[in-house]
């Protein structure tokens, strides 16, 4: 990581009102150095271990949730046992490849949601998240 990359990540964390600790900076570097991506906490933990970053899985989870709360990540829950963290926080949807366990972005403009039922009284839509589950046809 270059000095300017380090400064940029540190600014990103400070702008999100997160203290740029050594561990947070290391995680931010792993998360954002490869462009937009979808990653599980377990995969990020493996990448951190491979990079020589000593950090527990619990700390990874805590930081991912802090990054999400701060608006730096978006959590995509595909089922009750699987969450992915998306570095692309702009509004968009996803294909979930069930066999590979991977997510792929769908541009917001490529999908239209229609016929939303009347909202419960006193509520408003904050977002609409669509996950289209796909798999290979059986032959």
Automatic annotation (TrEMBL):
InterPro entries: FUR, WH-like_DNA-bd_sf, WH_DNA-bd_sf. GO terms for biological process: negative regulation of DNA-templated transcription; regulation of secondary metabolite biosynthetic process. GO terms for molecular function: DNA-binding transcription factor activity; transcription cis-regulatory region binding; zinc ion binding. It comes from the Bacteria. It is found in: Cytoplasm. GO terms for cellular component: cytoplasm. CDD domains: Fur_like. Pfam families: FUR (PF01475). Keywords: Cytoplasm, DNA-binding, Iron, Metal-binding, Repressor, Transcription, Transcription regulation, Zinc. Belongs to the Fur family. Homodimer. This is Ferric uptake regulation protein. It comes from Sneathiella chungangensis. The lineage of its organism: Bacteria, Pseudomonadati, Pseudomonadota, Alphaproteobacteria, Sneathiellales. The gene is fur.
């Amino acid at each position: 990581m270059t000095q300017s990359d380090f400064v940029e990540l540190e600014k990103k964390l400070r702008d999100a009102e997160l203290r740029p600790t050594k561990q947070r900076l290391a995680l931010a570097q792993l998360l954002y150095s490869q462009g937009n991506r979808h990653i599980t906490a377990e995969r990020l933990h493996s990448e951190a271990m491979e990079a020589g970053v000593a950090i527990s899985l619990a700390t990874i989870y805590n930081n991912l949730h802090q990054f999400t709360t701060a608006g730096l990540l978006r959590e995509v829950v595909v089922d009750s046992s699987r969450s992915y963290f998306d570095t692309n926080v702009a509004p968009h949807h996803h294909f979930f490849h069930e066999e590979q366990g991977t997510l792929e972005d769908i541009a917001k403009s490529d999908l239209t949601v229609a016929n939303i039922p009347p909202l419960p009284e006193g509520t408003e839509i904050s977002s609409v998240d669509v996950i289209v589950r796909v798999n290979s046809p059986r032959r």
